[in-house]
Amino acid sequence: MPDLLLQKGDLQLLFDRLSGDGFRLVGPTVSQEAIVYDEIASVGDLPRGWTDVQAPGSYRLEPRSDEAFFGYVVGPHSWKKYLFPPLATLLTADRTDSGWAMHAPPEPTEKYAFIGVRACELAAIKVQDRVFLEGAYVDPIYKARRDRCFIVAVNCTQAAATCFCTSMNTGPRCQAGFDLALTELSAAFIVEAGSDSGRQVCGQLPLREATPAERAAAEAARAQAVAGISKRLETEGIRDLLLTNLEHPRWADVAARCLSCANCTMVCPTCFCSSVGEVTDLKGDHVERQRQWDSCFNVDFSRMNGGVVRNDVRSRYRQWLTHKLASWIDQFGQSGCVGCGRCITWCPVAIDLTEEVAALREPGP
Amino acid sequence: MTAPLSPTVGNPWLCHTVRIAAITPEISGVATYDFEFTDPDAANRYQFRPGQFNMLYLPGVGEAAISLSAHPAARRRWSHTIRVAGNVTQALAQLGTGGVLGLRGPFGSSWPIDDCRGRDVILVAGGIGLAPLRPVVYRLLAERSHFGQLTLLHGARSPGGLLYTREHATWNAGGVAVQTTVDRTAADWNGNVGTAVVLLDRLPLPRPENTVLLTCGPDVMMHFTARAALQRGLPASQLWISAERNMQCAVGLCGHCQLGPEFVCQDGPVFRYDRIAPFFRVEGL
Ligand SMILES: Cc1cc2nc3c(=O)[nH]c(=O)nc-3n(C[C@H](O)[C@H](O)[C@H](O)COP(=O)(O)OP(=O)(O)OC[C@H]3O[C@@H](n4cnc5c(N)ncnc54)[C@H](O)[C@@H]3O)c2cc1C
Ligand code: SF4
Fold first, then answer.
1. What is the four-CA torsion angle of B248, B252, B258, B262, rounded to 10 degrees?
2. B residues 142-201 near A, CB within 8 Å?
3. Is A342 helix (H, G, I), strand (E, B) or coil?
4. Domain of A265?
């Protein structure tokens, strides 16, 4: 299918089409001075005319000089909050005369259309697919949500100072894993379909074939994002670098700065750790087993009866970095990092993992 | 190392319900529970290999990872030896015979018993660490003629911490030489004093290159056991440890049990030492 053109004024028609097909729309919207992902009703909820300015430890919204809908990069949220919900019921147990009756929770009835998924985020979804769907055990919560979602990707036309997707080979161009991908021009979007459902939706919209000039304009817009990327993570030999430097002095250095607040793991679009807890009614006859996001930065994460395994910030920061960039490769055949830069932006003390890796490349004293 | 029996089809969070059929007090704070499935179908399908574990679930309290300590040929009824440690194990201790709880499993890798054929075998168990090795003892006894010299070195903090002592005479008679030791002696104790590693240091090893050692206990104990065994000439590829980490899911999805690149719940708990050593040796990993 050739690239198509959707007039900006017709973006709402796409939303209407998806709503008509039963999808609840989730997309970027401004809330609490950030661009977050939330349920949206119309194009009016999009962060039109806003951009984000990011740096290690800092995030700020600023008005744009134009009316772009998607003229920002990525915010604190990622799509994992819909596919791998922060809180989910795994099992219910009800007391019976002879013991307990246990059941899986009902499958969700809602299905979501994600609007504005960036290339690094498509990569992150693929990383979580590998964790939750492609191992020996399939996570039913993730699967039920993943099977039902519709993905409208958006190609980046600018980059933040914290972006390094080019180092991770995850962006900025959306290559696969979407139903539709948009590139925003000043008056229109170039639309690519990446799946049969995407092509079907296209068939129901007032699209026309893009002209060579329009396609060239889209190419130029996407090139701006590539040109805007300044950060780099050297990935050559990174697995061995990290796993053979487990006693490097840099771990103590970063531990002196790290607050072990877990922000980096919460904003990370691939971190998948969780803990399970019990929620009981007053009589104790109805119990829900609930799974909640957890983080290797929490002390209790590695608690055993004999004590805590990772009992200092040094060992916890080391777990995060070595897991994300090294042991993830052993476990899942790919890096756990997609280069979105969220952990750098949302670190309250501006720790930048690319700098930590660079320092680990220096031999210890 | 062996792969899980079969990838569980369906929802890995679903539990079977099991009923406590019998409770045998072992030592202070430790009892062996015999379980039976409430669903006969599940009972017929259930099989495990020595070294694997189940997740036991008490609704409203939580789950705990507990090794199978039954005879591996047990059908329909099998046992777990459980030490009261915290919330779940305490609540379990409050249930009597007939009590019903949830169970998921079996999970994880198993001891390499087939690799032990034709070889001398040393089992080194610290405290409750003997529980996951008991099915190995049963297998070795059942197929005694296939193995060389068989030794169990069992250490505990005090004489009262030695496990399954009522069975030791049978094991000795069947051809598994049991040696016990305690860290702290007591008035009525005239046995060995010191750690199980001391026993290992003293153990004659006629053919270390043809000896397999399996160990389960606290990390430090396994650490020193491995070191002593290597010094005595056992190859690292013939040492096996069973590791313990916090576990929430037992199916590689919660992240808690990571030890370097390994998920202890899936890749372990039983590891060949040469595979895990670079990570097992690092403090706080
Ligand atoms: C593979 C494996 C096999 C085991 N086999 C046995 C056995 O045969 N017999 C036996 O008595 N014990 C065994 N344990 C230890 C047992 O799992 C813990 O003692 C138990 O989880 C403690 O739970 P609790 O709720 O009573 O204690 P709490 O201290 O209240 O535990 C609270 C939570 O902390 C975590 N936790 C605490 N201690 C441990 C621990 N040691 N290991 C993993 N998670 C922990 C769990 O998530 C638990 O739900 C085994 C552990 C593992 C990992
Ligand atoms: S970095 Fe930490 S929180 Fe994230 S997946 Fe790894 S262990 Fe879990």
1. 150
2. none
3. helix
4. 238-273+295-360
Q: Are residues A161 and A12 in the same domain?
A: yes
8 A C-beta contact, residue A128 and residue A271: no
Could you tell me which CATH number the domain at B16-107 has?
Answer: 2.40.30.10
- Cα gap B260→A336, rounded to integer Å: 14
Which comes out higher in pLDDT, residue A12 or B43?
Answer: A12
Whether A57 and A345 have beta carbons less than 8 Å apart is answered as yes
Strand, coil or helix: B155: strand
Residue of B nearest to A141 (CA): B11
Cα(A140)–Cα(B11) distance, integer angstroms: 6
From B7, B245, B284, residue closest to A311, measured CB to CB: B284
CA angle B220, B225, B227 (to 5 degrees): 95
Instruction: Report the gap between the CA of B62 and the closest CA in chain A (Å).
Output: 6
Q: How does B71-80 read in b/e, with b if 16+ C-beta sit within 10 Å?
A: bbebeeebbb
A248 with A205, same domain: the answer is no
DSSP letters for A222-240: HHHHHHH-------TTHHH
CA dist., res. B244 & res. B266, Å (int): 12
Q: Among residues A262, A288, A234, A267, which one has the least CA distance to residue A343?
A: A267
Q: Which residues of chain A have pLDDT under 70?
A: 1, 364-365
Q: Are the C-beta atoms of A334 and A328 separated by less than 8 Å? A: yes
Kind and range of the H or E run holding B124: strand B120-126
Q: Which of A210, A228, A246 is the last residue of a domain?
A: A228
Query: Cis bond leading into A28, ω under 30°?
Result: no
- Cα–ligand 2 centroid distance for A293 (angstroms): 10
SS3 A333: coil
Structure tokens at B221: 């104990």
Domain final position from A173, A196, A228 = A228
**CB B160 within 8 Å of CB B222:** no
Report CB contact under 8 Å: B285, A309: yes
Among B10-19, B104-113, B125-134, the range scoring the smallest mean pLDDT is: B10-19
Please write the tens of the pLDDT for every residue from B1-26.
333 334 345 899 999 999 999 999 99
Q: Residues B275, B241: contact at Cβ < 8 Å? A: no
Cβ atoms of B31 and B89 within 8 Å: the answer is no
Q: CA of A99, closest CA in chain B: separation in Å?
A: 5
Test the A interface: residue of B18, B56, B220, B248 with most A CBs within 10 Å: B248
Task: Give the strand pairing for B53-58 and B100-107.
Answer: antiparallel
CB contact under 8 A, A131 and B285: no
Flag whether A285 is in a domain.
no
Query: B17: helix, coil or strand?
Result: strand
Angle A56-A293-A302 from CA coordinates, rounded to 5°: 90
A123 & A180 share domain: yes
The CATH architecture assigned to B114-242 reads 3-Layer(aba) Sandwich (3.40)
Whole-complex ipTM = 0.93
Q: Is A304 in the pocket of ligand 1 (CB under 6 A)?
A: yes
Choose the closest CB to B59 out of A274, A287, A314. Answer: A287
